[in-house]
Amino acid sequence: MKLAIFGAGYVGLSFAACMAEAGHDVLCADADASRIEGLQQGQMPLHEPGLEALVAEGLAAGRLRFTADKCAASMHGDVLFIVVNTPADAEGEVDLQHVMAVARSIGQHRDRDAVVVCKSTAPVGTAEQVEAVLRDELSQRGAVHRIAVAVNPEFLREGSAVRDCRQPDRVVIGAADPAAIDLLTQLYAPFVTDPTKQLLVMDRRSAELTKYAANAMLATRISFMNEMARVAGHAGADIEMVRRGIGSDRRIGPDFLQAGAGYGGSCLAKDVRALRHAADRDGQVLRILSAVEAANHEQKGRLFDLMTHHFEGDIAHKTIALWGLAFKPDTDDMRDAPSLVLLERLWAAGARVQVHDPAAMPNARAIVGERGDVRWCDTPEDALEGADVLALVTEWPVFRRPAFARIASTLKTPAIFDGRNVYDAVEVEAAGIAYYGIGRGRSVLR
Ligand SMILES: NC(=O)c1ccc[n+]([C@@H]2O[C@H](COP(=O)([O-])OP(=O)(O)OC[C@H]3O[C@@H](n4cnc5c(N)ncnc54)[C@H](O)[C@@H]3O)[C@@H](O)[C@H]2O)c1
Ligand SMILES: O=c1ccn([C@@H]2O[C@H](COP(=O)(O)OP(=O)(O)O[C@H]3O[C@H](CO)[C@@H](O)[C@H](O)[C@H]3O)[C@@H](O)[C@H]2O)c(=O)[nH]1
């Protein structure tokens, strides 16, 4: 099939490369000309495991091409995917300008029938708005092409985007148009093992809401576990034991039950906010989601609170080694990262930080700027030199099995604040290091 993909970000680029790998002829367009120039030369604009090789393979085979020319992209192929950013403001109002810009461009330039697919996460009713824009543009120039609009939300996770694209749990197709359903079914059938169960065809509004409901459920599980971690800390229980205890119930399942320093990233917070806001406008008060947001906001301050407790309020002039900045491992993405909240609170309290992250330091530096109270370190060990204590915020593999004896002898007052519960409290304490986890170890705050 010939596919046009608008948006070469974390999702668009991963999707484009995987579709090219599957043998399709893919033209990927982005409004950022410098991003496109780089991609044409094989330079990656973002960090995503396995993606660079896949892009190189697609370019070499001639199946993956990049363009900044929206007209060329609008004319390409049978199916055109909209995969641009849909940010939400502080209230949760979603900015659809990029989605509508793509729709306008397709309406202005398309010279034959097409299927347009909304893959961006967007509020219920967006596909109808896209359809209206297309209809308007076509009628303004007297064109009579048939352009069907479908919804196909994306569920990939950053850090495993290539794997998730190649092997999705399920594919949601929101469409009524038989030709659109047929094309998308053909496109996705090779990516799933049981198309009858994993290809879910539904109406467009249900598909749009499915995406928000999925992220809201994931965020709810995390906030629930973070609250349970508080209970565990006070009760002298270990949240990791509780996680295993409840995750083995098939009705609950083991995933997304990890207590930690709060959820971050470009999606969970944005989509929970947008869903709550849209419902609010319709007169529906979503009490659970408001609580999920409030709990996460509080949770992002948890490591700082534990440190303040450890230092008995005297955190000024302390030096904190901080491992991990990205919102999760295997990405350079800093959007809504819990580390940013910790940094701000430490700086406001007069502490200094020494940070290391395997991929996100350039993006983090661009956000926080150059300042005297941070040292950007090339290695995890370097970040420990001269520090009082260590905080783990992102569980990159390189941080998972450190030499605790070395940490004990390097830190001035050995203590680890484990924001992702990856260390064994007994092993850490045996090395002479105070261990604070989330809902385990010395995590009681009164
Ligand atoms: N990041 C994720 O893990 C993830 C997963 C599932 C769904 N989503 C959703 O997918 C969408 C894209 O997310 P992302 O993280 O890839 O965003 P991103 O910010 O990484 O990339 C978006 C890209 O779209 C480009 N763009 C903007 N306007 C354009 C236009 N008119 N024409 C062509 N390109 C244009 C931008 O320049 C940017 O490169 C969002 O709606 C998001 O909510 C994201
Ligand atoms: O048990 C868990 C799982 C995750 N997290 C945190 O939650 C955040 C988000 O993680 P994850 O969901 O793995 O990454 P995303 O790439 O943001 O993916 C989410 O958001 C995407 C964008 O909509 C969806 O496509 C994915 O299905 C959905 O998982 C990160 O800060 C994690 O540290 C936890 O605290 N505990």
Description:
The structure is a single chain. The protein has 446 residues and is of the alpha/beta class. It has 2 domains: 2-201, NAD(P)-binding Rossmann-like Domain (Rossmann fold, 3-Layer(aba) Sandwich), CATH 3.40.50; 203-446, NAD(P)-binding Rossmann-like Domain (Rossmann fold, 3-Layer(aba) Sandwich), CATH 3.40.50. 45% of the residues lie in helices and 13% in strands. It contains 19 helices and 14 strands. It has helices at residues 10-21, 33-40, 51-61, 70-75, 97-109, 126-140, 161-166, 178-188, 195-198, 204-235, 239-247, 268-281, 287-299, 302-310, 338-348, 361-368, 380-384, 404-410, 425-430; strands at residues 2-6, 25-29, 64-67, 79-82, 114-118, 147-151, 171-174, 199-202, 319-323, 352-356, 374-376, 389-392, 415-418, 434-436. Strands 3-2-1-4-5-6 form a 6-stranded parallel β-sheet, sandwiched between helices. It has a 6-stranded parallel β-sheet with strand order 11-10-9-12-13-14. Strands 7-8 form a two-stranded parallel ribbon. Strand 5, helix 6 (126-140) and strand 6 form a beta-alpha-beta unit. The termini are far apart. The mean pLDDT is 97. The structure holds nicotinamide-adenine-dinucleotide (NAD) and uridine-5'-diphosphate-glucose.
